[in-house]
Amino acid sequence: xxxxxxxxxxxxxxxxxxxxxxxxxxxxxxxxxxxxxxxxxxxxxxxxxxxxxxxxxxxxxxxxxxxxxxxxxxxxxxxxxxxxxxxxxxxxxxxxxxxxxxxxxxxxxxxxxxxxxxxxxxxxxxxxxxxxxxxxxxxxxxxxxxxxxxxxxxxxxxxxxxxxxxxxxxxxxxxxxxxxxxxxxxxxxxxxxxxxxxxxxxxxxxxxxxxxxxxxxxxxxxxxxxxxxxxxxxxxxxxxxxxxxxxxxxxxxxxxxxxxxxxxxxxxxxxxxxxxxxxxxxxxxxxxxxxxxxxxxxxxxxxxxxxxxxxxxxxxxxxxxxxxxxxxxxxxxxxxxxx
Amino acid sequence: xxxxxxxxxxxxxxxxxxxxxxxxxxxxxxxxxxxxxxxxxxxxxxxxxxxxxxxxxxxxxxxxxxxxxxxxxxxxxxxxxxxxxxxxxxxxxxxxxxxxxxxxxxxxxxxxxxxxxxxxxxxxxxxxxxxxxxxxxxxxxxxxxxxxxxxxxxxxxxxxxxxxxxxxxxxxxxxxxxxxxxxxxxxxxxxxxxxxxxxxxxxxxxxxxxxxxxxxxxxxxxxxxxxxxxxxxxxxxxxxxxxxxxxxxxxxxxxxxxxxxxxxxxxxxxxxxxxxxxxxxxxxxxxxxxxxxxxxxxxxxxxxxxxxxxxxxxxxxxxxxxxxxxxx
Lengths: 339, 328
What we know:
The structure holds 2 protein chains of 2 kinds. Chain A is of the alpha/beta class. Chain A is built from 12 helices and 14 strands. Chain A has helices at residues 6-20, 52-56, 68-79, 99-106, 109-112, 142-146, 159-171, 220-233, 251-261, 276-287, 310-313, 320-338, and strands at residues 2-5, 24-28, 61-63, 84-91, 122-127, 152-154, 176-181, 188-191, 204-207, 212-216, 238-242, 245-247, 264-271, 297-301. By secondary structure, chain B is of the alpha/beta class. A 5-stranded parallel sheet of chain B has the order 1-2-3-7-6, sandwiched between helices. Chain B has a two-stranded antiparallel ribbon with strand order 4-5. In chain B, a hairpin with a 2-residue loop joins β4 (176-177) and β5. The interface between A and B is large, with 49 and 54 residues.
C-alpha cells in the first residue's frame, strides 16, 4: 500500500494498463503535455522521468484537436477494430458535443449489429462542479447516460476505487464512461502499488449502520460519511453505501441494507429530475416498499443551472449538513418516540 | 487500367446483384413482406461497386442509410442480407439491425448508419487502428451529398489529415438530400473542400462508369496504403428510385428530362455494352450471368422465407458482452 491522490491513482491505472496491453492507447486533448496530471509522472506538466509520451510514444499517446465528435466516434471505430482506447474528454460538460456518437454509435453498434462488434473503450471526463467555473463546466451528466442502454457508468469516489475501477473499465469489452469529480482529485488514500481491478456492480459499504441507509454518489460520498459521523454523536446509526458503478447497479446491496434499516436517503450531486437518486429511490420503492418505515428522501442539486458566484454555487450541492438534515427527518419519528 | 476479365466480370456481377436485390426488396416492401421501408441503390451501382472493388477483402468500410449495395459490393452473400431486411433470425445482424443497419464484419463492413454522417468517425477510427497496429488495412467511409454538410465530416477529415490515417472519404453525390437539390444547400464543390485539409480531392463526373470510379478510388487506396494519408473522392451519380420505397411526395422535385437523361445512363447497361465491345464477354455469357444473379436473389428470398423469426428473448441479447443485472 501507498498513499496516493485520486488523480495519481488514475495516472497509475493508465500507466499499468498501457504497459499491460499494447492495444491500449490514450486519445484526447492535451494528453501529451499532461495538463491534467494523469499522463505523466507525479503531478501536472511533463516530467523528466515517467512521462507517458516518453514511455509510450506518439503512436499510443494521441493528442487531438478540439473535436469531441470525431474523438468519440474514432475511438469507437478503433475499438471495433482491435484497439482498446482510453479517451480523455477533459470536462464532462464537453460530452454533449459528441452526443450523437455516444448514443447512436458507441451504445448501439454492438446491439444493432447483432453482437458482431464489441467496443472496449473507456471515456474519462471530470465534473468541474463546486469550483466556480460557471454553467459550461460544472455539469454532472451521468444520469443522462444511465438512460442510454449499452453504456456502463462509473463514478469513483476514492483513490482506491479510481484506480481499480479504471483498470476494470480498460479490461471490459464494453464501452465505459467514467465520471470523475474534480473536488475529489486531491483526496488522498491508501492504494495498492500492484495492479488490481474492482468488479463493476459491487457497491462499497463505507460504514455499517442500523437506523438509516445513505446511498451516496461521487463527491457526496465523503459528505455522507461526515454526516454519518456527526449523526453518530446523536445516537443515529447510518449505513453509508457507495454504488461505485451506476450501470450496472448493485441493487441487492442497497435493497438488503434498506430491509435492515427501514429508511433511505440518497445523496446525488446531479440535478434532481431523473437523477441517479430518482432511479435508486424508484427501485427501492418497487422492491422494498414493505421495509420502508419512512418516505425516501433525495438530497440532490435542485433543477437549476449552476451559477458562477461563490455566494451562489456551493449551497446547491449535497453537503454533510443537508444529508444529516434529511437523515434526521427520516428517523424523526423513532427518535421522538425514544425521547 | 489493366484489369483481368475475371475482375471486370465480377464488377458486372456485383452491380447486377445490387440491382436485382434492391428491385426485389422494393417489391417486398410494397407487398408488406419487408416491414418499414428501404432505400435502394438502384442507379448508383457503378459508384458502389467501383469503390468497393478498389478495396481489398480485409479493408474496412462504413455505410449510410442507402447501403444495401455496400456489403454486396464488398462480397457479402445475399441470403443473410435479405433475411435481415425481413427481420429473420438468420439475418446478418440476427434481425436487430434491418435495412438501415446492415453490417457484415466478415467482409469488413463495419455497419451502416441511419444518422446522416454519423458513421464517418467510425471509419476514421478503423483507420486509426490500422495505423497504430500497422496491419496495412485501409478504411473507406461512404456518405452522401447530404452528409457532406455535417460537421463530423470535417472533424474527421482534419483528424485523418493530421494523423495521416489510411482512410478514403467517399461522397456519393446523387444530387438530392431527399427532396432538396444538393446545389441549393451546398456551398462550392464538395471535392474542393479537401484542399482546406491538405489532402487530394477528386471529383468523378461520370459516376455511372464503374471503371472511372474504380480508378479514382484505387489511387486513393494506394495512397492510403503507402502511408501518405487520406483522400476525398466525390462521385456524381443519380438514384433512379424515390428516396425510399413507397414514399409518395406531392411535388416533383426532380425534373422529368433530368431524370430520363440519367435513366439512359444506366451503369449496368453501359458496362455490359463495353464488356461486349472490348471482347471481354459475349452477349450469351452476359445473359447467363444475369440469369445466375437472378437465381442468387431467388435463393436469398427462399432462404429468408425458410428462416425462423428470432425468439423474443433475443431483444435482450448483445447489448453488453457480459449480461448485467439491468436486463435480468
